[in-house]
Fold this sequence. Notes:
The protein is mostly helical. It has four helices and no strands. The chain starts with 18 loop residues before the first helix and ends with a helix.
Amino acid sequence: xxxxxxxxxxxxxxxxxxxxxxxxxxxxxxxxxxxxxxxxxxxxxxxxxxxxxxxxxxxxxxxxxxxxxxxxxxxxxxxxxxxxxxxxxxx
Length: 91
């Protein structure tokens, strides 16, 4: 389902204790509209705009609905496992 809540105010915590939850906590603190000022990574999972687009998504991750951000996480995780986050987040 697509949320009608704007991404900037939405938050999501994932399943308690899961890798997904750890990534969200470390990357955005649950703020779907978060942006890293130094790298430009954004959204719940801290996707770089280049990675976001390479996964087939348009726009910027921090502007996408939570459901789309979750789909991007699932796609990246299916393709590459946790490698995109593990080295940086300690998850």
